[in-house]
Amino acid sequence: MILLSIETSCDETAVSVIKRSRGKNIKFEVLSHKVLSQVDLHAQYGGVFPALAKREHSRALTQLIAEALQESGLLVERANMFHIPAVKRKRLEQLLEREPDMLVAMKVMFEGIQKPNLSAIAVTMGPGLEPALWVGINAALALRLMWDMHVYPINHMEGHIVASVLSKKGREYEVPDLEFPACALLISGGHTEIVRMPKWRSYKVIGRTKDDAVGEAFDKVARLLGLPYPGGPHISRLAEQARNEGLIVDEDLRLPRPMLHSGDLHFSFSGLKTSVLTKVTKRTPLDERTKKMIAFEFENAATDVLVAKVKQAIYETRAKTLIIGGGVSANTHIRMALKSLADTEGFSLFVPDHTLSTDNGLMIGSTGLLHIAMGSKPKVKLIANGSWSIEDC
Ligand code: KG4
Ligand code: ZN
């Protein structure tokens, strides 16, 4: 079985083609894995603009799909130009009414290439930016219309979980057997959640942020320090320098550890950002040493809270496995802190490969395979859901 996956929930346009290997376990080979980032474009504005993200996805996606098919050896050009039958053409035009760039590109693709040997499509249906999600969904529906194949809607956060556990052996990836119950810490630009997983495809959110997501806090603090978007990697780099230099943070730059003693599993990061704002205002103009101290202190504060809540969640749920996923899971300090917690508490830890921590198509494709292997039915009606909870997927 060969699966095409599409991810357009935020600022990466991503497509992958994977081929399931024979056997009971979920193993697959990656035929193509393409990610086109819009980060540089959004960086000029200091954050992701939904309308701009949608336009860029709509311009890039068809070409990316064609390239992925080509790389997978599935693209066969037609000897003679094919004319899309009138009924299907009309339906296609209705479907892509709001994506005129994509409509033109899709028509050219359908006229020029034969139906590829694909079994199904997996597409992100949420959570994310709705205008951006619609581009991926409408593309999947257009492919279904023309090439007649099943479409599986995938929850982006479940995708981050699956991406984190993938193990690579030679050319093959595998979804390994996990020891349940497991907990997942999902930390991205839009989410900060602790999820209890008694088994695959069963998710209960037991902790979440009351305001900003941790990635959002990294990005906002970075902006206060005059660092480019997305700020997470920049904060992390400065903090690392401070740590290596043994820098002691000035007393007046110390930050709170919000909700550390709240007794529950919830988070709050907006106060931390406000605290940074107050300190930055007092110290303006910022010198490099102050920026480093703030980045260092902020990363430590965020990590302290994440680690404490995870420790409590593991204790309360008796989890044997912790999975961390989402863009912020790329953060080395957070990874190391959770690794040392795993060592002392004796649970297994899964972190995503660095190439799979930020948004990509493989996370959606591998989750699609998991759904199919577990007998999920494809969906006929697909509607973008910007706030789709992992509990309902
Ligand atoms: O999962 P993701 O790619 O997109 C969303 O679904 O939100 O996560 C992006 C977030 C951004 O906030 C970015 O600053 C953060 O992940 N991020 C990091 C690091 N790399 C990316 N945060 C902290 N440290 C990093 N090394
Ligand atoms: Zn993500």
Overall structural class, as computed from helix and strand content, comes to: alpha/beta
Tell how many strands the DSSP assignment holds: 12
Main pleated sheet: 7 strands, mixed
Number of helices: 12
Cα-atom radius of gyration = 22 Å
User: Percent helix among the residues?
Assistant: 40-55%
Ligands = 5'-O-[(R)-(carboxyoxy)(hydroxy)phosphoryl]adenosine, zinc ion
Low-confidence stretches: none
The main sheet orders its strands as 5-4-1-2-3-7-6
Gross geometry: globular
End-to-end gap: 23 Å
Strand and helix order: EEEHHHHEHEHEEEEEHHHHEHEH
Round the mean pLDDT to the nearest integer and report it: 97
Beta-strand residue percentage = 15-25%
Question: What's the arrangement of secondary structure elements?
Answer:
Elements: E1 2-7, E2 12-20, E3 26-37, H1 39-43, H2 50-71, H3 86-95, H4 100-112, E4 120-126, H5 130-147, E5 150-155, H6 156-165, E6 167-169, E7 172-175, E8 182-187, E9 192-199, E10 202-208, H7 214-224, H8 232-245, H9 270-283, H10 288-317, E11 321-325, H11 332-345, E12 348-350, H12 362-373
Parallel strand pairs: 1-4, 4-5, 8-11, 11-12
Antiparallel strand pairs: 1-2, 2-3, 3-7, 6-7, 8-9, 9-10
Helix pairs in contact: 2-4, 2-5, 3-5, 6-12, 7-9, 7-10, 8-10, 10-11
The structure holds 5'-O-[(R)-(carboxyoxy)(hydroxy)phosphoryl]adenosine and zinc ion.
